[in-house]
Amino acid sequence: MTDNTAAGPDQFDGAASGRPAPKTETADSGPMLAADGRPLKASLNRALRRQKLRAMMLIAPLLIFVLVTFIAPIADMLFRSVENQIVSETLPRTTTELATWDGDAGEIPPPVVFEALYKDIFIAQERKLHTRLGSRLNYELTGVSSLFRKSGRNVDDMGEVYQDQFEDLNAFWEDGENWNRMMATPDWLDDITAWSEDREGSQPPFEMREEVAAVLPETAATFQTFADFVQFEDEDNLANEDPWAIVYSALYEDLQSGADVASLSGPGATELQEAAAAVAGFESVDYTAAFHDVDEDWHDIEVWQTIQTYSPDFTSGYFLNAVDMKKSPDGPEMRPENEQLHIMLFMRTLFMSLVITGSCILLGYPVAWILANLPARTANLLMILVLLPFWTSLLVRTSAWKVMLQQQGVVNDTLVWLGIVADDSRLALINNQTGTIIAMTHILLPFMILPLYSVMKTIPPSYLRAAKSLGATNWTAFWRVYFPQSVPGIGAGSILVFILSIGYYITPEIVGGTTGTFISNRIAYHISSSLNWGLAAALGAILLAVVLGLYWAYDKIVGIDNVKLGG
User: Fold this and answer.
1) For residue 562, what are the contacts with CB-CB under 8 A and spacing of at least 6?
2) Cα Rg of the chain (Å, integer)
3) Model-level pTM?
4) How sure is the predictor about 553, in pLDDT bands with cuts at 50, 70 and 90?
Protein backbone atom coordinates (compact mmCIF):
# COMPACT_ATOMS: atom_id res chain seq x y z
CA MET A 1 0.00 0.00 0.00
CA THR A 2 1.44 3.25 -1.13
CA ASP A 3 1.74 6.10 1.34
CA ASN A 4 0.56 9.24 -0.46
CA THR A 5 0.66 11.35 2.66
CA ALA A 6 4.39 11.64 2.42
CA ALA A 7 4.20 13.39 -0.90
CA GLY A 8 4.84 17.09 -0.63
CA PRO A 9 3.41 19.89 -2.77
CA ASP A 10 6.12 19.49 -5.35
CA GLN A 11 5.06 15.91 -5.93
CA PHE A 12 1.40 16.74 -6.50
CA ASP A 13 0.02 14.90 -9.49
CA GLY A 14 -2.72 16.82 -11.20
CA ALA A 15 -4.13 13.63 -12.65
CA ALA A 16 -5.05 12.50 -9.17
CA SER A 17 -7.66 15.28 -8.93
CA GLY A 18 -9.29 14.26 -12.15
CA ARG A 19 -7.97 17.26 -14.13
CA PRO A 20 -5.25 17.09 -16.84
CA ALA A 21 -1.92 18.47 -15.82
CA PRO A 22 -0.80 21.61 -17.75
CA LYS A 23 1.56 20.91 -20.58
CA THR A 24 4.92 22.48 -20.08
CA GLU A 25 7.79 22.91 -22.49
CA THR A 26 10.31 20.19 -21.82
CA ALA A 27 12.84 18.39 -23.82
CA ASP A 28 10.47 15.42 -24.05
CA SER A 29 7.06 17.03 -24.61
CA GLY A 30 8.15 19.88 -26.99
CA PRO A 31 6.68 23.45 -27.09
CA MET A 32 3.68 24.44 -24.99
CA LEU A 33 0.40 24.04 -26.90
CA ALA A 34 -2.81 26.06 -26.81
CA ALA A 35 -6.30 24.58 -26.55
CA ASP A 36 -6.56 24.30 -30.36
CA GLY A 37 -3.36 22.26 -30.57
CA ARG A 38 -1.25 25.10 -32.01
CA PRO A 39 2.01 26.17 -30.37
CA LEU A 40 1.19 28.75 -27.71
CA LYS A 41 3.58 31.37 -29.10
CA ALA A 42 2.10 31.11 -32.63
CA SER A 43 -1.42 31.25 -31.21
CA LEU A 44 -0.64 34.39 -29.21
CA ASN A 45 0.91 36.07 -32.27
CA ARG A 46 -2.16 35.19 -34.31
CA ALA A 47 -4.47 36.65 -31.68
CA LEU A 48 -2.35 39.81 -31.55
CA ARG A 49 -2.51 40.21 -35.33
CA ARG A 50 -6.28 39.84 -35.24
CA GLN A 51 -6.51 42.43 -32.48
CA LYS A 52 -4.41 44.89 -34.50
CA LEU A 53 -6.50 44.23 -37.60
CA ARG A 54 -9.73 44.93 -35.70
CA ALA A 55 -8.25 48.15 -34.33
CA MET A 56 -7.17 49.18 -37.83
CA MET A 57 -10.65 48.50 -39.19
CA LEU A 58 -12.13 50.71 -36.49
CA ILE A 59 -9.95 53.68 -37.40
CA ALA A 60 -9.99 53.01 -41.16
CA PRO A 61 -12.94 55.37 -41.90
CA LEU A 62 -11.25 58.24 -40.07
CA LEU A 63 -7.90 57.43 -41.66
CA ILE A 64 -9.42 57.41 -45.15
CA PHE A 65 -11.24 60.67 -44.43
CA VAL A 66 -8.00 62.35 -43.31
CA LEU A 67 -6.11 61.02 -46.33
CA VAL A 68 -8.76 62.21 -48.81
CA THR A 69 -9.56 65.59 -47.26
CA PHE A 70 -6.21 66.60 -45.78
CA ILE A 71 -3.17 64.62 -46.94
CA ALA A 72 -4.18 64.32 -50.60
CA PRO A 73 -4.92 68.08 -51.06
CA ILE A 74 -1.60 68.99 -49.46
CA ALA A 75 0.24 66.52 -51.68
CA ASP A 76 -1.55 67.91 -54.74
CA MET A 77 -0.68 71.44 -53.66
CA LEU A 78 2.99 70.56 -53.29
CA PHE A 79 3.01 68.90 -56.71
CA ARG A 80 1.33 71.85 -58.43
CA SER A 81 3.94 74.18 -56.99
CA VAL A 82 6.69 72.51 -59.05
CA GLU A 83 4.73 70.96 -61.97
CA ASN A 84 5.42 72.55 -65.37
CA GLN A 85 4.62 69.95 -68.07
CA ILE A 86 2.40 72.30 -70.07
CA VAL A 87 5.36 73.91 -71.89
CA SER A 88 7.08 70.70 -72.96
CA GLU A 89 3.79 68.95 -73.77
CA THR A 90 2.42 71.82 -75.87
CA LEU A 91 5.70 72.67 -77.62
CA PRO A 92 7.52 69.31 -77.74
CA ARG A 93 9.43 69.93 -80.99
CA THR A 94 10.26 73.53 -80.12
CA THR A 95 11.65 72.77 -76.67
CA THR A 96 13.77 69.94 -78.10
CA GLU A 97 15.29 72.17 -80.78
CA LEU A 98 15.65 75.06 -78.34
CA ALA A 99 17.71 73.00 -75.89
CA THR A 100 20.93 73.67 -77.82
CA TRP A 101 20.26 77.38 -78.42
CA ASP A 102 22.52 79.82 -76.59
CA GLY A 103 20.30 82.57 -75.28
CA ASP A 104 23.26 84.70 -74.20
CA ALA A 105 24.66 84.95 -77.73
CA GLY A 106 22.32 87.83 -78.57
CA GLU A 107 20.79 86.11 -81.61
CA ILE A 108 17.33 84.71 -82.18
CA PRO A 109 17.01 80.90 -82.57
CA PRO A 110 17.84 79.30 -85.95
CA PRO A 111 15.16 78.60 -88.62
CA VAL A 112 14.72 74.99 -87.50
CA VAL A 113 13.32 76.26 -84.19
CA PHE A 114 10.76 78.47 -85.95
CA GLU A 115 9.72 75.55 -88.15
CA ALA A 116 9.23 73.41 -85.03
CA LEU A 117 7.26 76.27 -83.46
CA TYR A 118 4.96 76.34 -86.49
CA LYS A 119 4.16 72.64 -86.14
CA ASP A 120 3.62 72.84 -82.38
CA ILE A 121 1.41 75.92 -82.47
CA PHE A 122 -0.64 74.56 -85.38
CA ILE A 123 -1.50 71.40 -83.45
CA ALA A 124 -1.92 73.31 -80.18
CA GLN A 125 -4.41 75.76 -81.68
CA GLU A 126 -6.47 72.87 -83.07
CA ARG A 127 -6.59 71.44 -79.56
CA LYS A 128 -7.19 74.88 -77.98
CA LEU A 129 -4.05 74.54 -75.88
CA HIS A 130 -2.06 77.51 -77.16
CA THR A 131 -4.03 80.01 -75.04
CA ARG A 132 -3.39 77.99 -71.88
CA LEU A 133 0.31 77.90 -72.68
CA GLY A 134 0.28 81.65 -73.33
CA SER A 135 -1.37 82.25 -69.97
CA ARG A 136 1.25 80.09 -68.23
CA LEU A 137 4.19 81.93 -69.79
CA ASN A 138 2.47 85.28 -69.27
CA TYR A 139 3.01 84.77 -65.52
CA GLU A 140 6.72 85.03 -66.23
CA LEU A 141 6.76 87.60 -69.08
CA THR A 142 3.94 90.04 -69.68
CA GLY A 143 2.56 90.03 -73.21
CA VAL A 144 3.25 86.39 -74.09
CA SER A 145 -0.43 85.47 -73.75
CA SER A 146 -1.52 87.81 -76.54
CA LEU A 147 1.46 86.67 -78.63
CA PHE A 148 0.27 83.05 -78.61
CA ARG A 149 -3.35 84.00 -79.26
CA LYS A 150 -2.36 86.06 -82.29
CA SER A 151 -0.08 83.31 -83.61
CA GLY A 152 -2.83 80.71 -83.24
CA ARG A 153 -5.11 82.79 -85.46
CA ASN A 154 -2.49 83.23 -88.19
CA VAL A 155 -0.60 79.93 -88.25
CA ASP A 156 -3.08 78.41 -90.74
CA ASP A 157 -1.90 80.84 -93.40
CA MET A 158 1.63 79.41 -93.29
CA GLY A 159 0.48 75.88 -94.06
CA GLU A 160 -1.97 76.97 -96.73
CA VAL A 161 0.94 78.15 -98.87
CA TYR A 162 1.80 74.49 -99.54
CA GLN A 163 -1.81 73.30 -99.56
CA ASP A 164 -2.73 75.71 -102.37
CA GLN A 165 0.24 74.61 -104.47
CA PHE A 166 -0.54 70.89 -104.11
CA GLU A 167 -4.19 71.45 -104.96
CA ASP A 168 -3.28 73.61 -107.96
CA LEU A 169 -0.97 70.83 -109.13
CA ASN A 170 -3.65 68.12 -109.03
CA ALA A 171 -7.25 68.06 -107.84
CA PHE A 172 -6.46 64.70 -106.21
CA TRP A 173 -5.07 66.55 -103.19
CA GLU A 174 -8.31 68.45 -102.54
CA ASP A 175 -10.33 65.42 -101.45
CA GLY A 176 -9.94 63.93 -97.96
CA GLU A 177 -11.13 60.53 -99.24
CA ASN A 178 -8.15 60.39 -101.57
CA TRP A 179 -5.84 61.04 -98.63
CA ASN A 180 -7.49 58.23 -96.66
CA ARG A 181 -7.08 55.73 -99.51
CA MET A 182 -3.42 56.71 -99.87
CA MET A 183 -2.50 56.68 -96.18
CA ALA A 184 -4.73 53.97 -94.64
CA THR A 185 -4.67 50.18 -94.78
CA PRO A 186 -7.34 48.44 -96.90
CA ASP A 187 -8.76 46.77 -93.79
CA TRP A 188 -9.35 50.11 -92.12
CA LEU A 189 -10.99 51.51 -95.26
CA ASP A 190 -13.43 48.59 -95.21
CA ASP A 191 -14.09 49.05 -91.48
CA ILE A 192 -14.70 52.81 -91.74
CA THR A 193 -17.02 52.31 -94.70
CA ALA A 194 -19.06 49.74 -92.81
CA TRP A 195 -19.10 51.91 -89.69
CA SER A 196 -20.24 54.96 -91.69
CA GLU A 197 -23.21 53.02 -92.98
CA ASP A 198 -24.57 51.63 -89.68
CA ARG A 199 -22.89 53.95 -87.07
CA GLU A 200 -22.89 51.19 -84.46
CA GLY A 201 -20.18 51.01 -81.83
CA SER A 202 -17.10 53.19 -81.69
CA GLN A 203 -15.31 54.46 -84.76
CA PRO A 204 -12.51 52.10 -85.89
CA PRO A 205 -9.12 53.67 -85.04
CA PHE A 206 -7.12 54.81 -88.04
CA GLU A 207 -4.46 52.35 -89.29
CA MET A 208 -1.48 53.69 -91.25
CA ARG A 209 0.01 51.81 -94.21
CA GLU A 210 3.47 50.68 -93.18
CA GLU A 211 5.02 51.30 -96.60
CA VAL A 212 3.74 54.90 -96.62
CA ALA A 213 5.04 55.50 -93.09
CA ALA A 214 8.46 54.23 -94.15
CA VAL A 215 8.72 56.48 -97.23
CA LEU A 216 6.88 59.58 -95.87
CA PRO A 217 7.63 59.56 -92.10
CA GLU A 218 6.79 63.22 -91.39
CA THR A 219 3.58 63.07 -93.43
CA ALA A 220 2.55 59.81 -91.74
CA ALA A 221 3.19 61.18 -88.24
CA THR A 222 1.30 64.41 -88.92
CA PHE A 223 -1.62 62.61 -90.58
CA GLN A 224 -1.80 60.19 -87.65
CA THR A 225 -2.04 63.16 -85.26
CA PHE A 226 -4.78 64.64 -87.43
CA ALA A 227 -6.67 61.33 -87.55
CA ASP A 228 -6.47 60.80 -83.78
CA PHE A 229 -7.72 64.31 -83.15
CA VAL A 230 -10.69 63.96 -85.51
CA GLN A 231 -11.69 60.54 -84.23
CA PHE A 232 -11.14 60.80 -80.49
CA GLU A 233 -11.16 64.50 -79.59
CA ASP A 234 -13.60 65.99 -82.08
CA GLU A 235 -15.37 62.62 -82.44
CA ASP A 236 -16.10 63.24 -86.13
CA ASN A 237 -16.09 60.76 -89.00
CA LEU A 238 -12.56 60.74 -90.39
CA ALA A 239 -13.85 59.57 -93.79
CA ASN A 240 -15.58 62.94 -94.28
CA GLU A 241 -12.75 65.22 -93.10
CA ASP A 242 -10.12 66.98 -95.20
CA PRO A 243 -6.60 66.99 -93.73
CA TRP A 244 -5.10 69.97 -91.94
CA ALA A 245 -2.89 72.40 -93.80
CA ILE A 246 0.07 71.18 -91.78
CA VAL A 247 -0.26 67.77 -93.45
CA TYR A 248 0.57 69.42 -96.78
CA SER A 249 3.57 71.11 -95.15
CA ALA A 250 4.76 67.72 -93.92
CA LEU A 251 4.30 66.20 -97.37
CA TYR A 252 6.36 69.01 -98.89
CA GLU A 253 9.09 68.39 -96.30
CA ASP A 254 9.23 64.66 -97.09
CA LEU A 255 9.25 65.16 -100.86
CA GLN A 256 11.82 67.95 -100.64
CA SER A 257 14.13 65.68 -98.65
CA GLY A 258 14.15 63.14 -101.49
CA ALA A 259 11.59 60.54 -100.38
CA ASP A 260 11.65 57.41 -102.57
CA VAL A 261 8.01 57.62 -103.68
CA ALA A 262 8.82 55.50 -106.78
CA SER A 263 8.85 52.45 -104.50
CA LEU A 264 5.22 53.02 -103.52
CA SER A 265 2.27 51.45 -105.29
CA GLY A 266 -1.47 51.60 -104.86
CA PRO A 267 -3.73 54.64 -104.42
CA GLY A 268 -1.94 57.99 -104.75
CA ALA A 269 1.35 56.53 -106.01
CA THR A 270 1.09 58.29 -109.37
CA GLU A 271 0.12 61.61 -107.79
CA LEU A 272 3.00 61.34 -105.32
CA GLN A 273 5.49 60.81 -108.10
CA GLU A 274 4.05 63.81 -109.93
CA ALA A 275 4.30 65.96 -106.82
CA ALA A 276 7.87 64.80 -106.12
CA ALA A 277 8.91 66.08 -109.51
CA ALA A 278 7.15 69.41 -109.00
CA VAL A 279 8.07 70.41 -105.40
CA ALA A 280 11.40 71.81 -106.53
CA GLY A 281 9.49 74.67 -108.12
CA PHE A 282 7.14 75.26 -105.15
CA GLU A 283 7.24 78.49 -103.20
CA SER A 284 8.67 77.76 -99.76
CA VAL A 285 7.81 79.35 -96.45
CA ASP A 286 10.41 81.23 -94.41
CA TYR A 287 9.02 80.49 -90.94
CA THR A 288 11.37 82.94 -89.26
CA ALA A 289 10.04 85.80 -91.40
CA ALA A 290 6.47 84.48 -91.23
CA PHE A 291 6.38 84.61 -87.43
CA HIS A 292 7.93 88.08 -87.51
CA ASP A 293 5.05 89.15 -89.77
CA VAL A 294 2.58 87.72 -87.27
CA ASP A 295 4.16 89.61 -84.37
CA GLU A 296 7.53 91.30 -84.04
CA ASP A 297 7.89 89.92 -80.50
CA TRP A 298 8.84 86.55 -81.98
CA HIS A 299 12.21 88.14 -82.73
CA ASP A 300 12.55 89.29 -79.11
CA ILE A 301 15.26 87.21 -77.45
CA GLU A 302 13.58 87.56 -74.04
CA VAL A 303 10.53 85.64 -75.30
CA TRP A 304 12.69 82.72 -76.39
CA GLN A 305 14.72 82.84 -73.18
CA THR A 306 11.47 82.54 -71.20
CA ILE A 307 10.34 79.52 -73.25
CA GLN A 308 13.75 77.89 -72.85
CA THR A 309 13.91 78.60 -69.12
CA TYR A 310 10.51 77.02 -68.46
CA SER A 311 10.91 74.04 -70.80
CA PRO A 312 11.69 71.43 -68.07
CA ASP A 313 8.80 69.39 -66.70
CA PHE A 314 9.47 70.63 -63.18
CA THR A 315 10.41 74.14 -62.15
CA SER A 316 11.34 76.18 -59.11
CA GLY A 317 9.87 79.26 -60.77
CA TYR A 318 6.67 79.28 -58.71
CA PHE A 319 8.59 79.22 -55.43
CA LEU A 320 10.93 81.94 -56.70
CA ASN A 321 7.93 84.08 -57.65
CA ALA A 322 6.49 83.46 -54.20
CA VAL A 323 9.53 85.18 -52.65
CA ASP A 324 9.66 87.99 -55.25
CA MET A 325 12.35 86.38 -57.38
CA LYS A 326 12.36 84.95 -60.90
CA LYS A 327 14.28 82.51 -63.03
CA SER A 328 16.59 83.93 -65.66
CA PRO A 329 19.20 82.51 -68.04
CA ASP A 330 21.83 83.46 -65.45
CA GLY A 331 19.95 81.88 -62.54
CA PRO A 332 17.54 83.21 -59.86
CA GLU A 333 17.39 86.97 -59.42
CA MET A 334 15.24 89.46 -57.54
CA ARG A 335 12.33 91.05 -59.33
CA PRO A 336 12.23 94.85 -59.78
CA GLU A 337 11.28 96.69 -56.61
CA ASN A 338 7.90 97.74 -58.02
CA GLU A 339 7.01 94.06 -58.58
CA GLN A 340 7.96 92.84 -55.09
CA LEU A 341 4.82 91.99 -53.16
CA HIS A 342 4.80 88.56 -51.55
CA ILE A 343 7.54 88.97 -48.93
CA MET A 344 5.80 92.12 -47.68
CA LEU A 345 2.50 90.21 -47.48
CA PHE A 346 4.13 87.35 -45.56
CA MET A 347 5.65 89.78 -43.05
CA ARG A 348 2.36 91.67 -42.72
CA THR A 349 0.47 88.41 -42.17
CA LEU A 350 2.82 87.26 -39.41
CA PHE A 351 2.87 90.67 -37.72
CA MET A 352 -0.90 91.17 -37.76
CA SER A 353 -1.55 87.58 -36.65
CA LEU A 354 0.73 88.15 -33.65
CA VAL A 355 -1.03 91.46 -32.86
CA ILE A 356 -4.44 89.79 -33.11
CA THR A 357 -3.25 86.97 -30.85
CA GLY A 358 -1.94 89.49 -28.32
CA SER A 359 -5.21 91.46 -28.44
CA CYS A 360 -7.21 88.29 -27.80
CA ILE A 361 -5.01 87.47 -24.79
CA LEU A 362 -5.45 90.95 -23.30
CA LEU A 363 -9.21 90.94 -23.82
CA GLY A 364 -9.90 87.27 -23.22
CA TYR A 365 -7.90 86.69 -20.06
CA PRO A 366 -10.04 88.93 -17.78
CA VAL A 367 -13.25 87.51 -19.25
CA ALA A 368 -12.08 83.94 -18.71
CA TRP A 369 -11.01 84.77 -15.13
CA ILE A 370 -14.42 86.24 -14.34
CA LEU A 371 -16.21 83.21 -15.84
CA ALA A 372 -14.01 80.81 -13.88
CA ASN A 373 -14.60 82.54 -10.52
CA LEU A 374 -18.31 83.33 -10.75
CA PRO A 375 -20.98 80.96 -9.49
CA ALA A 376 -21.79 78.22 -12.00
CA ARG A 377 -25.28 79.58 -12.81
CA THR A 378 -24.02 83.07 -13.60
CA ALA A 379 -20.96 81.75 -15.45
CA ASN A 380 -23.15 79.59 -17.69
CA LEU A 381 -25.33 82.56 -18.62
CA LEU A 382 -22.29 84.65 -19.48
CA MET A 383 -20.79 81.75 -21.44
CA ILE A 384 -23.83 81.91 -23.73
CA LEU A 385 -22.83 85.50 -24.58
CA VAL A 386 -19.30 84.29 -25.39
CA LEU A 387 -20.66 81.60 -27.71
CA LEU A 388 -23.34 83.80 -29.26
CA PRO A 389 -21.10 85.01 -32.15
CA PHE A 390 -20.81 81.39 -33.34
CA TRP A 391 -24.53 81.46 -34.08
CA THR A 392 -24.09 84.34 -36.53
CA SER A 393 -22.60 84.10 -40.01
CA LEU A 394 -18.97 85.17 -40.31
CA LEU A 395 -19.88 87.27 -43.33
CA VAL A 396 -22.62 89.07 -41.38
CA ARG A 397 -20.31 89.85 -38.46
CA THR A 398 -17.60 91.15 -40.77
CA SER A 399 -20.07 93.27 -42.73
CA ALA A 400 -21.40 94.69 -39.46
CA TRP A 401 -17.89 95.83 -38.52
CA LYS A 402 -17.53 97.47 -41.93
CA VAL A 403 -20.62 99.55 -41.17
CA MET A 404 -19.60 100.32 -37.59
CA LEU A 405 -15.99 101.33 -38.33
CA GLN A 406 -16.54 103.68 -41.25
CA GLN A 407 -15.97 107.40 -40.66
CA GLN A 408 -19.71 108.03 -40.39
CA GLY A 409 -20.26 104.80 -38.47
CA VAL A 410 -21.28 104.04 -34.90
CA VAL A 411 -17.76 104.01 -33.44
CA ASN A 412 -16.75 107.38 -34.82
CA ASP A 413 -20.12 108.93 -33.99
CA THR A 414 -19.73 107.75 -30.39
CA LEU A 415 -16.20 109.14 -30.14
CA VAL A 416 -17.38 112.49 -31.51
CA TRP A 417 -20.35 112.54 -29.10
CA LEU A 418 -18.03 111.86 -26.17
CA GLY A 419 -15.71 114.62 -27.34
CA ILE A 420 -12.72 112.31 -27.74
CA VAL A 421 -12.22 113.26 -31.40
CA ALA A 422 -13.33 116.29 -33.38
CA ASP A 423 -16.01 115.92 -36.02
CA ASP A 424 -13.58 116.97 -38.76
CA SER A 425 -10.90 114.55 -37.50
CA ARG A 426 -12.76 111.26 -37.49
CA LEU A 427 -10.56 108.17 -37.23
CA ALA A 428 -9.79 105.99 -40.25
CA LEU A 429 -10.74 102.59 -38.85
CA ILE A 430 -11.76 100.77 -42.03
CA ASN A 431 -9.94 99.58 -45.15
CA ASN A 432 -6.64 99.41 -43.29
CA GLN A 433 -4.77 97.25 -40.78
CA THR A 434 -6.68 98.75 -37.84
CA GLY A 435 -10.01 97.56 -39.20
CA THR A 436 -8.64 94.08 -39.84
CA ILE A 437 -7.21 93.80 -36.31
CA ILE A 438 -10.44 95.00 -34.65
CA ALA A 439 -12.74 92.76 -36.69
CA MET A 440 -10.57 89.65 -36.42
CA THR A 441 -10.00 90.13 -32.70
CA HIS A 442 -13.75 90.13 -32.18
CA ILE A 443 -14.21 87.05 -34.39
CA LEU A 444 -11.40 85.00 -32.83
CA LEU A 445 -11.85 86.09 -29.20
CA PRO A 446 -14.01 83.06 -28.23
CA PHE A 447 -11.21 80.74 -29.36
CA MET A 448 -9.01 82.37 -26.71
CA ILE A 449 -11.61 82.55 -23.94
CA LEU A 450 -12.66 78.91 -24.08
CA PRO A 451 -9.19 77.33 -23.52
CA LEU A 452 -8.39 79.91 -20.83
CA TYR A 453 -11.67 79.24 -19.04
CA SER A 454 -11.24 75.46 -19.12
CA VAL A 455 -7.75 75.74 -17.58
CA MET A 456 -8.67 78.38 -14.99
CA LYS A 457 -11.60 76.28 -13.87
CA THR A 458 -9.15 73.60 -12.73
CA ILE A 459 -7.10 75.99 -10.53
CA PRO A 460 -8.24 75.54 -6.89
CA PRO A 461 -9.22 78.91 -5.28
CA SER A 462 -7.57 77.72 -2.07
CA TYR A 463 -4.16 78.35 -3.64
CA LEU A 464 -4.77 82.11 -3.70
CA ARG A 465 -6.18 82.12 -0.19
CA ALA A 466 -3.12 80.24 1.03
CA ALA A 467 -0.79 82.73 -0.64
CA LYS A 468 -2.64 85.68 0.91
CA SER A 469 -2.60 84.02 4.34
CA LEU A 470 1.17 83.85 4.04
CA GLY A 471 1.37 87.60 3.50
CA ALA A 472 1.22 87.94 -0.31
CA THR A 473 -0.60 90.90 -1.79
CA ASN A 474 -3.38 90.40 -4.34
CA TRP A 475 -0.99 91.14 -7.20
CA THR A 476 1.78 88.90 -5.85
CA ALA A 477 -0.66 86.03 -5.27
CA PHE A 478 -1.99 86.39 -8.79
CA TRP A 479 1.39 86.74 -10.52
CA ARG A 480 3.31 84.13 -8.52
CA VAL A 481 0.57 81.54 -7.97
CA TYR A 482 -2.41 81.93 -10.29
CA PHE A 483 -0.86 83.15 -13.53
CA PRO A 484 1.75 80.38 -13.94
CA GLN A 485 -1.01 77.77 -13.69
CA SER A 486 -3.01 79.54 -16.41
CA VAL A 487 -0.12 79.61 -18.89
CA PRO A 488 -1.14 76.30 -20.54
CA GLY A 489 -4.49 77.89 -21.39
CA ILE A 490 -2.73 80.92 -22.87
CA GLY A 491 -0.59 78.58 -24.96
CA ALA A 492 -3.57 76.60 -26.25
CA GLY A 493 -5.58 79.73 -27.04
CA SER A 494 -2.61 81.42 -28.71
CA ILE A 495 -2.01 78.45 -31.01
CA LEU A 496 -5.69 78.34 -31.98
CA VAL A 497 -5.98 82.07 -32.62
CA PHE A 498 -2.66 82.42 -34.41
CA ILE A 499 -3.21 79.45 -36.74
CA LEU A 500 -6.74 80.59 -37.55
CA SER A 501 -5.77 84.21 -38.13
CA ILE A 502 -2.78 83.46 -40.35
CA GLY A 503 -5.08 81.69 -42.83
CA TYR A 504 -8.06 84.11 -42.76
CA TYR A 505 -8.99 85.84 -45.99
CA ILE A 506 -12.72 86.77 -45.86
CA THR A 507 -12.44 89.35 -43.08
CA PRO A 508 -9.24 91.02 -44.40
CA GLU A 509 -10.79 91.12 -47.87
CA ILE A 510 -13.87 92.99 -46.63
CA VAL A 511 -12.39 95.38 -44.05
CA GLY A 512 -8.67 95.38 -44.87
CA GLY A 513 -8.55 97.48 -48.05
CA THR A 514 -5.12 97.55 -49.67
CA THR A 515 -3.01 97.71 -46.50
CA GLY A 516 -4.86 95.20 -44.31
CA THR A 517 -4.96 92.12 -46.53
CA PHE A 518 -3.09 88.90 -45.78
CA ILE A 519 -1.08 86.50 -47.94
CA SER A 520 -4.16 84.25 -47.92
CA ASN A 521 -6.01 86.91 -49.91
CA ARG A 522 -3.31 86.68 -52.56
CA ILE A 523 -3.62 82.89 -52.61
CA ALA A 524 -7.39 83.17 -53.07
CA TYR A 525 -6.86 85.67 -55.90
CA HIS A 526 -4.54 83.34 -57.80
CA ILE A 527 -6.91 80.39 -57.35
CA SER A 528 -10.15 82.14 -58.36
CA SER A 529 -9.13 85.07 -60.59
CA SER A 530 -5.71 84.80 -62.20
CA LEU A 531 -5.90 80.96 -62.22
CA ASN A 532 -2.18 80.80 -61.45
CA TRP A 533 -2.61 77.68 -59.35
CA GLY A 534 1.12 76.93 -59.36
CA LEU A 535 1.96 80.22 -57.64
CA ALA A 536 -0.98 79.80 -55.25
CA ALA A 537 0.31 76.33 -54.36
CA ALA A 538 3.83 77.67 -53.79
CA LEU A 539 2.52 80.46 -51.54
CA GLY A 540 0.42 77.94 -49.62
CA ALA A 541 3.39 75.59 -49.24
CA ILE A 542 5.58 78.40 -47.88
CA LEU A 543 2.82 79.46 -45.49
CA LEU A 544 2.51 75.86 -44.30
CA ALA A 545 6.28 75.66 -43.78
CA VAL A 546 6.25 78.94 -41.80
CA VAL A 547 3.46 77.69 -39.54
CA LEU A 548 5.23 74.37 -38.94
CA GLY A 549 8.45 76.25 -38.21
CA LEU A 550 6.75 78.50 -35.66
CA TYR A 551 5.06 75.47 -34.13
CA TRP A 552 8.48 73.78 -33.80
CA ALA A 553 9.95 76.92 -32.21
CA TYR A 554 7.04 77.13 -29.78
CA ASP A 555 7.56 73.50 -28.82
CA LYS A 556 11.27 74.12 -28.18
CA ILE A 557 10.72 77.30 -26.16
CA VAL A 558 7.48 76.62 -24.26
CA GLY A 559 6.90 72.91 -24.81
CA ILE A 560 3.83 71.57 -26.48
CA ASP A 561 3.27 69.25 -23.50
CA ASN A 562 2.50 72.34 -21.41
CA VAL A 563 -0.46 73.21 -23.66
CA LYS A 564 -3.76 71.84 -22.47
CA LEU A 565 -7.45 72.63 -22.64
CA GLY A 566 -8.13 71.87 -19.01
CA GLY A 567 -8.25 68.91 -16.66
Assistant:
1) 487, 488, 491
2) 39
3) 0.78
4) confident
